[in-house]
Amino acid sequence: MPSFTLREIAQHLGAELYGNSDHEINGIASLQMAGNQDLSFLANPTYKKYLSTTNAGAVLINFALVEEFTGNKIVVEKPYEAYAKLTSLFKPGIVSVKGVHPTAVIGNSVVMGRNISIGPNAVIGNGVIIADDVVIGAGCCIGDLTEIGRETELRSNVTVYHHIKIGSQCLFHSGSVIGADGFGFAPTKNGWIKIHQLGRVIIGNSVEIGANTCIDRGALEDTVIEDGVIIDNLVQIGHNVKIGRNTAIAAHTAIAGSTVIGNQCTIAGAVGIVGHIQITDNVHITGMSMVSSSIAEPGSYSSGTALSETKEWRKNAVRFRQLNELANRIQKLEHDKK
Prior knowledge:
Blueprint: E1 4-5, H1 6-13, E2 16-18, E3 24-25, E4 27-28, E5 38-41, E6 58-61, E7 73-75, H2 79-90, E8 99-100, E9 105-106, E10 111-112, E11 117-118, E12 123-124, E13 129-130, E14 135-136, E15 141-142, E16 147-148, E17 153-154, E18 159-160, E19 165-166, E20 171-172, E21 177-180, E22 185-188, E23 191-194, E24 201-203, E25 208-209, E26 214-216, E27 223-225, E28 230-231, E29 236-237, E30 242-243, E31 248-249, E32 254-255, E33 260-261, E34 266-267, E35 272-273, E36 278-279, E37 283-285, E38 290-291, E39 299-301, H3 310-337
Parallel strand pairs: 4-5, 5-6, 6-7, 8-11, 9-12, 10-13, 11-14, 12-15, 13-16, 14-17, 15-18, 16-19, 17-20, 18-21, 19-24, 20-25, 21-26, 24-27, 25-28, 26-29, 27-30, 28-31, 29-32, 30-33, 31-34, 32-35, 33-36, 34-37, 35-38, 37-39
Antiparallel strand pairs: 1-3, 2-7, 22-23
């Protein structure tokens, strides 16, 4: 278990320390659950009430609240950001054995960099390029002609189809599927004709993809995920979608084909986004919204109705059906007044 003195932690953050600089910390915990060897943090004012009762060995706190806590404290401008930086020091060690496991299947003309790790039963297709320090977990399948950048990690059972390009320092969680066919079919009187998907998926640097998330390959042009994008579990991204830098997408969101999403956007859980629209930079969409048209101005957007008791909701649902009639009546009344 890693252990650090408060002096070392403060130096790591470039922060001010008040208290015993030699006090040792071996974990991070909430204010309510922290013990004497734990570091905690106060980022949400809702939890300020726990400062007086916490057993934490030290607390990350901002300058405005420095007088509110009498114990050991590390003072930073943004405690949540500081906490995030410190988690890398305390994460459980995942040991990846360097080299290729004997049960892995390696195709022809594969180019492998230094210090790579390929786990049991992984399958690497022909012409794959794997850069330095890449980790490919057990049971992963990498299709022909795919490129994987340095220090990227694929956890167990990730599937990357053929001719995909992945940048450096990315993380793919188990069960994610990159480059499956987009949902393209042409209707005929005799049924559906499959439109074979001829594009690729291009993923930038420092991208994280959640478990069981699917990113479809492009139909003609490529599906593109730019640098710094973070995508939660169970997200569906359709063919030819483009997602801009540092955008975050929460679980159960579905994005239909050929939609373009800008930089620095946040899309909350279970959002639906129709195809062939554009969303500009710095747009924030709240949970379970349905985005049915382009968004040209930055800001926060919502749709749907708030939760209410079922009896009340049913009455309101009837009113929704009457809105058009009511609007027409109001227009007629205003017209008659003139």
